[in-house]
Amino acid sequence: MILALTGGFLGSGKTTAIVNACQRLISQHKKVAVITNDQGDEQVDSAFVRAMGVMVEEVGNGCFCCQYNELKSHLQYLQDTEHPDVIFAESVGSCTDLIATLVKPLSKRKPEMKMVVSVFADAGFLSAVMEGRTFFADEAIRYIYKKQLEEADVLVINKTDTITPLQLKHVDTVIKLENPGKAIIHQNSLEDVSTWLTTIDQFSEVVSRHSLDIDYDIYGEGESKLAWLDKSIVIRAPHGNGAFIARGLIRSLFDLMQSYHYHIGHLKFFLEGEDWQQKISFTAMSTSGEVSIKQENVFQLKLLINARVQTEPEYLKKLVDEVIERAKKASVCIITIERESVFKPGYPVPVHREG
Ligand SMILES: Nc1nc2c(ncn2[C@@H]2O[C@H](COP(=O)(O)OP(=O)(O)O)[C@@H](O)[C@H]2O)c(=O)[nH]1
Ligand SMILES: [Mg+2]
């Protein structure tokens, strides 16, 4: 069995690639499962993976390294009941130090499992950084980003369709120079993940992987710069314009974040009606809040919001509340809040850490 640990920054395309990979493997009669992970406990990713027909288990309320025992019992459960050929475990986008806190401890306790660490990076983001057009506003977040890339067995330069071949060549040259000895692949995860799957499959495990040389104070500081909001609401629209209301709400939330200069790590929505679902996602590279919801006559829908944004939790909450109030005033509808949690991730305290 292969455990494909899949890391990389918020919005880099991990879930998209995993779902595509699972569907491909299922069509080849392989057994697959996914373990999602988040600091919160209501995850757009889990809902999305499930909706795409893939078996999913969830580790919530903290990253894999801090919820190591939960991850281990999910792995055991899947091994015992589903016997998967591949388990994809997607770590939180602001998390790093996977070798020391997961790979090393797990390889001792589960020697039968082959582990491969893939780290995703958004090609558009890398290119913009290299051209000096953007970067995270905060030094400690930059630190996490760099550390994530450093510990990849397989480094996936993803979303290659968003940059020109010349930009890709430049990104590739720099990444190869900075990461000698790593398997580096180019990918458009919306289309073809076959090279990634072959690379994972053929990867021969490194006997002695190096744990990161990492300063937990800077890592913790980086995580604490991000506010986390999970909110699930139900929109009831007696005139059947629920999709229109949701679209307006999503667009205003994006627009307000832009106007307040709140850097978006990942702003995700999962919309669910009686017989339809849709995931909508904005990342650091998004420039417009325009979305299309391909559903007409929606009288009721559930909207799950996962926002990971560089600001303070109370500001993020205020902004989301304001957008909901505006939506209520703008249309005839009832919006009820089902669940909400707003916080910043705590200082990372891994269960195990092997240097
Ligand atoms: N153009 C393009 N978009 C992608 C690609 N991979 C992912 N995305 C989009 O990037 C956004 C974030 O993807 P997601 O898989 O949720 O990122 P995660 O946070 O790393 O799991 C979504 O809107 C995806 O549709 C890609 O290869 N090309
Ligand atoms: Mg994801």
How would the blueprint of this fold be written?
Layout: E1 2-8, H1 14-27, E2 32-37, H2 44-51, E3 56-59, H3 68-81, E4 86-90, H4 98-109, E5 114-122, H5 123-130, H6 139-150, E6 154-158, H7 165-178, E7 183-187, H8 194-202, H9 216-224, E8 227-236, H10 242-259, E9 263-272, E10 277-283, E11 300-310, H11 313-330, E12 334-343
Parallel strand pairs: 1-4, 1-5, 2-3, 2-4, 5-6, 6-7
Antiparallel strand pairs: 8-11, 8-12, 9-10, 9-11
The structure holds guanosine-5'-diphosphate and magnesium ion (MG).
**The CATH top-level class label of the largest domain:** Alpha Beta
Largest sheet: 7 strands, parallel
Number of structural units classed as domains: 2
Arithmetic mean of pLDDT = 96
Order of helices and strands: EHEHEHEHEHHEHEHHEHEEEHE
Question: What is the CATH architecture term of the largest domain?
Answer: 3-Layer(aba) Sandwich
Per CATH, the superfamily of the largest domain is P-loop containing nucleotide triphosphate hydrolases
Number of β-strand runs:
12
CATH topology of the largest domain: Rossmann fold
Q: Order of strands in the sheet with the most strands?
A: 3-2-4-1-5-6-7
Strand content: 25-35%
Shape: globular
Identify every distinct bound molecule in the structure, by name, code or SMILES.
Answer: guanosine-5'-diphosphate, magnesium ion
Share of helix, binned: 25-40%
Alpha-carbon distance between the two ends: 25 Å
User: Helix/strand-derived class?
Assistant: alpha/beta
Uncertain ranges: none
